Amino acid sequence: MIRKISAAGLALAVSATSSMAATNISWWHGMAGRNGEVINEIATKFNAAQAACAITPVSKGTYEEALASGIAAFRSGEQPNILQVFDAGAATIINAKGAVIPAEDLITKAGYSFNRADFIEGVRYLYADTEGKFVGMPFNSSAPIMYVNDEAMKKAGVEAPKTWEEFEAIAPKLKEAGFIPLVQSQLTWQFTENFFSRNNIQFATNNNGYDSTKGTELRVTDPNLVMMFNKLKSWKDAGYFGFYGAGWSDNQKMFEENKAALWIGSSGSFGGLQKTAQMPFSADFLPYWKAIDGAGTNTFIGGAALFAMAGKPEAENKCVADFFQFLTSAEVQYFYHKATGYVAITNAAYDMAKKDGYYDKTPVAEVGIKQLQLKSGEWSKGYRLGFYPQIREVMEREYGKIFSGETTVEDAFKTIETEGNELLARFAKTSG
Amino acid sequence: MKRVQFSSPLLPYLFLAPQMVIIIVFFYWPSVQAIQSSFYLEDPFGFGASFVGLDNYRDVLAGSQYAGIALFTLVFTVLVSGFSLGIGLLLAVKADGVIRGNATYKTMLIWVYAIAPPVAALIGLMFFDQHIGPIVKLAAFFGVELKIGLNFNDTAFAMIVVAVWKQIPYNFIFFLSGLQGIPVSVREAALVDCKSGFRRFWTVILPLLAPTAFFLLIINMTYSLFDTFGVIDVMVKDKAANNPITLVYKVYMDGFRGNDLGGSSAQSVILMIVVFALTIFQFRFIERRVHYN
To answer: What ipTM score was computed for the predicted complex, to two decimals?
Structure first.
């Protein structure tokens, strides 16, 4: 609450300092804590850098709450200029034709040039349409990476694994050294969506849902995915994998407290982890299965993007375009990358960070961006699936049941496929 | 009773107006909207809505999870209402009998009511935390492994404990004032007639408490059905996964998190019907046995 008040106070101060003539634009987001503060800092920087526009960021709670508020506001004609929408909600907003102005159109209309190749490979597709046109402007972008407890590796006398095969080989030694060999924080994002991209396997029909909402179906009974979860279950039974529920931090805690050897987290976790980890740590790419043909491809971005809402006056849209230009400038991207741990989304910002020697001092910060830039595959570009937040809820429920022994992996994925396909069919009807 | 006459026939309506406006804006209007959108399948942003008749209701009721969630909601409501009424009554009877320092006892028992449900849940969550929770450690000492957030029954247990704990003071206040409203002469007459304290309570005190108990029964059922939302939301930490949830939480998950307006409207209409039926049942069959004097 105090944070919200201070954010509001800052927003007020921001709008008060801008001149009366400035065009005001609003920005609703779903970030809290340090990441929310950084958003206010970026807004202050933008307002100080020019006089024509004044941006006011407003925190709407979590990602889900921000999307729900944005939708409710749009329906009553009170929408903000910019709405932050998270990865799983991308299909909801992109399929609502007319709710947003594609970021690329907005920017070119304002007289700026827009080059998709300026952006790093892993961020180009998740918020773009089938032709590759940017609908949302990628903002906070993260990749699922593996954090390594250096102390545990030393004690067990092993190297951090690159593949799951290598992990299986070292897990007994890590366990013997007194550590839980593996923990993770989000089975849906890290072991499902990104399992498909890292191992280059099709996630859903219709080109992972990008081509059409009609008749799109999940392919989660894929034998490789079933194998992955059977492995996780057997690792858990053998004491090689710790599962502490669907909550992110309950799992992260085991790593922070030096009880776990490897943790699959987010590249964006790095800032916080530096303060909370009780031991030295490093990071590496999300492991993949060597045995799967063509595996080892890049992952796609998680996090969220900014969408320019439709139905706003021209002058305000111009300001939104100005802000997007400002946001994607190398300096601001580098600042954001350093302040939060989210990856820099443009090649220019990445080069700037490299030249500045940032990665020599903190190599962990480069892992996420490198993973996004690995060679891409046919199925590593992400997905576009409607009612996906609900599909994730179905997955979370079934995954919980797998580890509490209430269901088998095979049955769980059959249930996810059936219920997920029903939701996709429902979504196709709403957007049809 | 003396009949009060208003000088103008419009005046009573004027007095009623503020209340009616609030009810219409915050209750009737949203209800009508919910009923309407439960017959449509709608794009979240409101671009297109197609009439689907009863499809939403069919999808909801045929959903693989709905029956299970409804069953849990029933069990949860019965247990939470039962325990919080029972314990509240027991404490009230005991506090009523205390003569020395009874203000202290009452304050100690009542203050919990001042805690907001999410805060109560946060406190409960700390007690039941899988890493540091003292109750989890206590259970482990007795050889019971509590896995809140991982095991359905363990999480249900924790939710019920927190929801009951939060509601006891409310029931306590009402039962206590109900008990204190029973005339001393009646109690003394009962004391002359019957030696057994339990029987006196059962045959004299409890029937006189019936109006209070009936009122509390309705309040506790709506509390368990609706007001425990905050407790559940905090306990499942935003991710329900395989943990127990109630019907209201499902409405929230599908409507606010999943943006499925038609489906969640159908669910809330079903809930409305359930509450409506429950209220009629209570007033027709239970209230008949309650004597007001």
So the answer is: 0.85
